[in-house]
From TrEMBL:
This is N-acetyltaurine hydrolase. GO terms for molecular function: hydrolase activity; zinc ion binding. A divalent metal cation 2 binds at E169, H201, H230. Transmembrane segments: none annotated. The keyword Metal-binding applies. Belongs to the metallo-dependent hydrolases superfamily. Phosphotriesterase family. It comes from Xiphophorus couchianus (Monterrey platyfish). The lineage of its organism: Eukaryota, Metazoa, Chordata, Craniata, Vertebrata. PROSITE patterns: PHOSPHOTRIESTERASE_2.
Amino acid sequence: MSVLSGKVQTVLGLVDPDQLGRTMTHEHLVMSFECSYTAPPPGDEAVAENPFQIQHMHWLRQHPYSCRENLFLSQELSALRDELLAYRKAGGGTIVENTTTGIDRDLPALRQLAKDTGVHIIAGAGYYIDCTHTEATKKMSVEKLTDNIVSEVLHGTDGTDIRCGVIGEIGTGWPITESEKKVLRATAHAQSQLGCPVIIHPGRDPAAPAEIIRILQEAGGDISKTVMSHLDRTIFDEGELLEFANMGSYLEYDLFGTEMLNYPFNLKVDMPSDSQRVRTLAFLVKEGYEDKVLMAHDIHTKNRLTKFGGHGYSHILKNIVPKMLTRGITQHQVDKILIDNPKRWLTFK
Ligand SMILES: CCC(=O)NCCS(=O)(=O)O
């Protein structure tokens, strides 16, 4: 039994799980997503260089990764403070901040945002996808990676005494690289030492989530305390979704607010609309998975902030929940998805 057992670890210290309230389990507040820059379509270069004007907002929603300036959420601390205050006003209590090594995690900024706004913020330990692994990271043994992750939870992160409360988002692509497999095994080893929550970013292929669960399971991970993120752009077939759900992880729909015609990271994927996401949640609830579903917006670009005409961190609470209630999901089930499931996942064993 560790000192963390039965508690949730925020950037301001340990809290009782009952204090969390409504929780978005997959957001970013301070990060950069430069690693995913994608060249704009031919002819659109001038728009990409001059993005934040009302007449360009539709273009930005369609091509969020083709404008470098849009990829630096870390430049928007004042807007983020306003966002979190609005989130609290809308009934939000907690945000899990999924920024890991490789995409510019900033623990002191998260601590300041938590102090300024009263929102509980839980930071993420570990490593993002392969292209952000340094040469030094790629050379590390699973044991060394495990030690690093454990230390980020027990002692502090990035040279501070601020501790992470989850492992992840742990990044993987498709196919999963050797370096990513080592990080997954280290994640499982760290989780079995700490009894902590884990959250995974899968590659963009329907086979990726199950393959990741197998790797974690073989390395001793606790799948019942693991979240599979981004299912909205990964598994589309209902039969395949139920087969994956049977493996026992939490099932996260975390791209609420993103609607784009051409998903640049996998042109074969049709990104669903929010209405289609709600329909999938209703399907999972009907099939008996109401204790496994989680929701979030995964905000990781500036154009999604209300300052730039975006939906902000309160979109689910303000717009999506009312829609869920008209689509066969009860208030009790909504509370499970937004309060009880996050609380159970985030509590250390
Ligand atoms: C760091 C943010 C992130 O990885 N978001 C996932 C975007 S997507 O792969 O679902 O498009």
